[in-house]
Amino acid sequence: MMLDEYLRWLEHNEGLAVSTVVSYGGYLKRLQVHCADRGTSLLLADRRVLEEFTGPVAHQAGISLSGRRPLIAAVRSFFKWMHDQGKRGDDPAKQVSYPKVGKPLPTKISKHYAEQMLLRCDLATFAGWRDAALLAMLIGLGLRVSGLVGMTSSTLSVERLDNGHDVFFATVTEKGRKERRIPVPEEALWFLLPYLDHPEFKALLPGITLLDGSHLLWVQTNRGSCPAHDWFGEKRRLSTNGVRDIIQRRGQEAGVPDAMLHPHAFRHLYGTELVEHDTDRQKIQMLMGHSSLESSAIYTHLAERKLAEVVANANPLRGMNTRIHAMHSKVKAKPKAVESRGASGLLR
């Protein structure tokens, strides 16, 4: 079948994630049904039929403007492939345009809330260590959830740099099957290494060792409906939904707003911190695994703390000597004196 042939080609030639290939297949099967309803087929459909499917039909199906972009991408990719393969003499999808819609700023979790989530992990338990280590890797490396759950022991390596320091690196496979190699900060290791050295984790090793000799890093602690005799190897790997459940649970325990309780919120925090520490954009691109510098630019809009500090210290009004300046200086000084007395009282 032509559609199956395209999906096989897409998977093996375009380097797209399996989930993307599956999504494209779903969109195109719906298009196939739409074409049949209009008395045509994928081989004969014209631009009018395609624009109807990606416009009014998609709208009636409740697909948002931003949600239509992957739908249109699937349609355009498929008809370009048909044209390139000589299955059609034209490409009616070439002129099907993407909806013009602004890209919202991503929601990042604050450092305070990220810290509170780490504090909610009970380090007297194995599950607590696992959750803390998992959160620390999301926070400290800006991982996508696909890269996190795909980690194995072979993901981690230790290298000695020119300065004589040993540094851990994580090599993860993420979006579009692309690898990125990220230094693991020391603070993340404070959580990760005790987790990997935990007696309960060591006891699991025979059952979580894979065919290539490596072993899983993130394991399930609840087998659900999986039979006990079958709960080993890949079936013990923590899933992306499992990671989301951990984030939801720990976040709710810490009182984190729901809008921040998703894996990408930690990635956005990581990118924002890089900007606020004056990391140049090319290094941000490498550390974040972005395909273009434009993708990294979004974090400059989130770096509010650094901008606020710059304005507070460098604006022309600072240091002027007016009556209003003097009045506000006195107002600011009073709370400091109160805080100082309170702190000294605590010390006594």
Descriptive tags:
mainly alpha; DNA polymerase, domain 1; 348 residues; hpI Integrase, Chain A; 3 domains; globular; 15 helices; 56% helix; three-stranded antiparallel β-sheet; 3 strands; disordered C terminus
Topology summary:
Layout: H1 2-13, H2 18-37, H3 47-60, H4 68-84, H5 111-119, H6 126-141, H7 145-149, E1 156-160, E2 166-173, E3 179-183, H8 186-196, H9 199-208, H10 240-253, H11 263-276, H12 281-288, H13 293-302, H14 304-314, H15 323-347
Antiparallel strand pairs: 1-2, 2-3
Helix pairs in contact: 1-2, 2-4, 3-4, 5-6, 5-10, 6-8, 6-11, 11-13, 12-13
Task: Describe this entry's structure for a reader.
It comes from Thiothrix lacustris. The chain has 15 helices and three strands. The protein has 348 residues and is mainly alpha-helical. It has three domains: 2-84, Tyrosine recombinase, N-terminal domain (DNA polymerase, domain 1, Orthogonal Bundle), CATH 1.10.150.130; 111-305, Intergrase catalytic core (hpI Integrase, Chain A); 319-348. The chain has a three-stranded antiparallel sheet with strand order 1-2-3. A hairpin with a 5-residue loop joins strand 2 and strand 3. Helix 1 packs antiparallel against helix 2 (18-37), helix 6 (126-141) packs across helix 11 and helix 11 crosses helix 13. The longest helix has 25 residues, at 323-347. The protein is globular. It starts with a helix and ends with a helix. Mean pLDDT is 84; it is low at 335-348.
Strand order of the largest sheet: 1-2-3
The CATH architecture of the largest domain can be named as: Orthogonal Bundle
CATH topology of the largest domain: hpI Integrase, Chain A
Backbone shape: globular
Q: Which value, in Å, is the CA radius of gyration?
A: 26 Å
Number of separate helices: 15
Number of separate structural domains = 3
Q: CATH homologous superfamily name of the largest domain?
A: Intergrase catalytic core
Taken in chain order, the helices and strands follow as HHHHHHHEEEHHHHHHHH
Low-confidence stretches: 335-348
Query: Quick check: average pLDDT?
Result: 84
